[in-house]
Amino acid sequence: MDLLRSLPIGLYLDQPITRLHQLDARVKFIWLMAFLAAPLLANPWWRLALVGLLMFLTLLAPIPPRVWRQQMGWLIFLAIIVFLITAITPDGLGVSIQPRLPDEGLNLPPASDYQYVLWDRGRLFVTRRSLELAVRISTLIFTLIYSTNLFLLTTAPEEITEGLENLMSPLRRFNVPVTEISLTLTLSLRFIPLVLEEVQNLARAVRTRAIDWQKLGIKRSLNVWLTVVEKLLDNLLLRAEQIAIAMEVRGFTSPNQHQVRWHELKLRWADFIALFLLIPFWAARLVWGGL
Predict the structure, then answer these.
(1) Do residues 87 and 131 touch, judged by C-beta distance below 8 A?
(2) pLDDT score, position 46
(3) Radius of gyration of the chain (CA)
(4) pLDDT at 212
(5) Per the UniProt record, which residue ranges are transmembrane (predicted)?
(6) What would the pLDDT profile of 272-287 be if each residue is shown by its tens digit?
(7) What is the rounded CA–CA span in Å between residue 256 and residue 254?
(8) Residue 254 has what pLDDT?
(9) pTM of the model
């Protein structure tokens, strides 16, 4: 499964068991919602602090370097590219700066050292607004992707579905199919490795045939790839049908007839500490995060 090892994004890390693995799935989900909601309407300094906090949690867990280096590497590269592109693009204000000089003969000191344009190289220039937008967008991308990935990395699919079902249990009063939703989520998370496996097998099949793409031309090459995509869809539909048949054989006809406890939920002292830390987290957000 080379593709699974080279693309660990969103996959569960079963070994080693870190401190984040030991936390309850509901606690980690609440913290994930906090990381997703905290950047809203926050200033750039708070967004940078969230990025540093995520890196600190990764080192505190500790997540093995072979895992976080590969994931954080491409994500930091993406954030840097977005930062550079946003910083040098026009900020949208479209204000032409016209300095007002005093009358001749007057030698007045400058009012302040404030400069709206921070860096100017002809057509490429960075303003205060473009720099602020660059920080906001790049940190938002990093926070949203990495916090979600860190949650999936340290939480088994069964724990995620059991925790969500527990948190959504009050919705049963409004006839919301909570069990069906959690079961669908479990199957979707389990189906991701199957998709990667089918893509890897088809890629190996095409590579072992040593196809000369230059002799085929564009039209024939597209026909080959359309055939590969069609075969991929057929294999995935076959896998889905096999899973459905296996569930029917084992009695998965309705949630009322076949109840399955995915994971035993139990809050420990570390979970209560993690929940208590939400109080200073949001207090710091309100005091230093801005509106």
Answers:
(1) yes
(2) 92
(3) 26
(4) 74
(5) 29-60, 72-90, 133-154, 269-288
(6) 999 999 999 999 999 9
(7) 5
(8) 65
(9) 0.74
The answer to whether 29 touches 147, Cβ cutoff 8 Å, is no
**Low pLDDT (below 70) residues in the chain:** 1-10, 71, 91-114, 250-263, 291
| Cα-Cα-Cα-Cα dihedral sign, residues 103, 104, 108, 110 | positive
Convert 116-154 to b/e letters by CB count within 10 Å (16 or more is b).
eeeeeeeeeebbeebbebbbbbbbbebbebbbebbbbbb
DSSP letter (8 states) at residue 260 = -
Quick: pLDDT tens for 57-93: 988 888 888 777 776 778 888 889 998 888 888 766 5
The whole-number pLDDT of residue 10 equals 61
Residues 84 and 140 sit within 8 Å (Cβ to Cβ): no
- CA–CA dist 169, 162 (Å, integer): 10
Q: Which 8-state DSSP code applies to residue 127?
A: E
Token pair, residue 247, equals 């569930």
Beta bridge partners of 127: 117
Residue 94 dihedral angles phi and psi, to the nearest 5°: 65, 40
Q: In this structure, what is the dihedral angle of CA atoms 176, 182, 185, 190, given to the nearest 10 degrees?
A: -160
CA distance 69 to 59: 11
Q: What's the CA gap between 46 and 40, in Å, rounded? A: 10
**pLDDT number for residue 1:** 45
For residue 68, the tally of other CB atoms under 10 A from its CB is 22
Half-sphere exposure of 146 (CA within 13 A, CB side): 28
- Beta bridge partners, 119, equal 126
Q: CA-CA distance, 214 to 221, in Å (whole number)?
A: 9
| Sequence letter at residue 46 | W
Rounded Cα gap, residues 222 and 218, in angstroms: 6
Sign for the CA dihedral angle at 85, 86, 87, 89 comes to positive
Distances (CA, A) of 35 to 43, 140, 155, 275: 14, 10, 16, 13
